[in-house]
Design a protein that fits this description.
Layout lengths: L15 H15 L3 E11 L6 E6 L4 E6 L1 H4 L11 E11 L4 E11 L2 H18 L16 E6 L4 H13 L4 E6 L7 H15 L4 E6 L13 H9 L4 E5 L7 H5 L2 E2 L3 H8 L3 H36 L3 H43 L2 H44 L1 H5 L5 E4 L2 E2 L11 E6 L2 E6 L8
Helix pairs in contact: 4-8, 5-6
Length: about 450
């Protein structure tokens, strides 16, 4: 990077492109990411989806660009005159010598404080248990009367009415008009909610409005309203904003709907599905009635066939009596045979378990056990004798006495074995152990053997 100098002899002339490139490097290195607040002006939204605008205050302005991939995450619709807070990177476009901000994120200048207040209230109510699933009331399957608390002129109320009329026109809708934005909106909504809940007239209550910024939806983050929703006896559906919008009433309500239309669909059965169910039930009823009529006809035919002449009935009963008599005789004979068999089995078991027979059997068992025990003792003694002989043989192999029997002797002095001529001196008394005794000797001379 070239540097400026005040020395005329070393002064270097920059080209415009070199100068702009050095300015770009200095700016982008010293200001990588910044937070800046100001007012939007000259906002342009071309078909490419990018946003171009100026950010200004009362003394200066700077151009800004927010590309499509970034501005899709903005939660409100900015317009000229809005005060915003930007997270951006300072960029410098060398060919034109322009400095601008490349915007990463945008929020309303007031949203930072509102978001903090939202998180504090959310955490507080959550710790109290107002969001717990165990407190949620189930929605009715087919509500007959539904109260809708919303703006009477907004798109949300039209969407809900259309959805109810399309799916289940029999639902009785009551629109309780209320402010849904502004200073008095939360009190207005709370008053209408208490009125609807205290009446006991409605099967469900919908709190709804269209989407907007956090500031636009702030009336639905009111603590008093949240506690009223929690303590309401009537099931509450919160349908505030779009799918990505969340308010405190969404967490406290019994059910959160992503949109007002979704709330209407949750509370209204599908008319076409109900018609299909009715048709199916009608077919089942027809089949069931046909089956009952068929069974009744079969029973009637059976009863007609059973109507006979009395003589025929007597003959039939006489035949049945004869059959019962034969069956009784056969049963008695079978019972006697079974008793005789059982008696024979008992006699056989008694004979088999006779004490005399048991004594003979046990005596024979004792004789067998005694024989097996004697055989086992004999085998064990023989094995032990063989093992003992092997041990004696091994001991003899390493015994010094065995070595003495082959003509060797062991010399010792003061009960210490003599291993070298250095262990004795002339005149020492020593003992020599041979196979059959000891020899007491006196050392006269010693001689080394190489």
């Amino acid at each position: 990077m070239k540097n400026f100098t005040t020395s005329a002899s070393q002064e270097t002339a920059f080209s415009v492109s070199q100068l702009n490139r050095q300015i770009q490097q200095l700016l982008e290195a010293s200001l990588p990411w910044i937070l800046v607040e100001g007012e939007i002006s000259n906002l342009a939204k071309p078909g490419s989806g990018h946003w171009y605008f100026s950010l200004k205050d009362d003394k200066a302005q700077i151009r800004c660009a927010m590309f499509k991939g970034k501005n899709s995450a903005v939660r409100f619709r900015p317009k000229d005159g809005d005060m915003v807070r930007l997270r951006a990177r300072v960029t410098f476009y060398g060919p034109r010598g322009d400095c601008q901000l490349s915007v990463e994120s945008m929020e309303s200048a007031g949203e930072g404080a509102l978001q903090q207040a939202f998180e504090r209230l959310k955490t507080s109510l959550q710790l109290e248990g107002l969001f717990d699933a165990k407190h949620k009331k189930p929605l009715p399957t087919k509500p007959e009367r539904v109260a809708i608390i919303t703006s009477p002129i907004g798109a949300a109320v039209r969407d809900m009415i259309i959805a109810f009329r399309r799916r289940f026109p029999l639902t009785e809708l009551t629109i309780l008009p209320s402010l849904v934005q502004g200073q008095d909106a939360a009190k207005n909504i709370l008053r209408q909610l208490q009125r609807a809940d205290d009446s006991g007239h409605f099967d469900a209550i919908v709190l709804g409005r269209g989407g907007g910024s956090l500031e636009d939806l702030w009336s639905f983050n009111d603590e008093a309203l949240a506690r009223a929703v929690f303590h309401a006896k009537t099931p509450i559906v919160s349908a505030v904003g779009h799918e990505t919008d969340f308010t405190i009433t969404d967490f406290v309500a019994d059910v959160r709907a992503a949109t007002p239309t979704a709330a209407a669909e949750l509370l209204s059965p599908d008319r076409n599905q109900l018609l299909r169910q009715i048709e199916q039930q009608e077919k089942q009823l027809v089949r069931r009635m046909s089956r009952i009529l068929e069974q009744g006809q079969q029973q009637l035919d059976f009863m007609i066939k059973r109507i006979r002449h009395p003589k025929e009935r007597i003959e039939q009963q006489q035949t049945q009596l004869d059959q019962l008599k034969r069956r009784l005789q056969q049963s008695m004979q079978r019972k006697v045979s079974e008793q005789q068999t059982q008696k024979a089995n008992l006699a056989h078991r008694l004979e088999r378990n006779s004490p005399t027979r048991r004594i003979v059997q046990d005596r024979q068992k004792l004789i067998d056990i005694d024989t097996r025990l004697a055989r086992a003792l004999s085998n064990t003694l023989a094995n032990k004798q063989t093992a003992f002989a092997r041990v004696i043989e091994k001991l003899n192999l390493v015994s010094p006495l065995n070595t003495l029997s082959r003509g060797y002797a062991i010399a010792s002095k003061d009960k210490q074995v003599i291993r070298s001529i250095d262990d004795v001196e002339k005149g020492d008394a020593i003992k020599i152990r041979v196979q059959n005794g000891e020899i007491n000797c006196t050392v006269k001379t010693t001689k080394a053997i190489s």
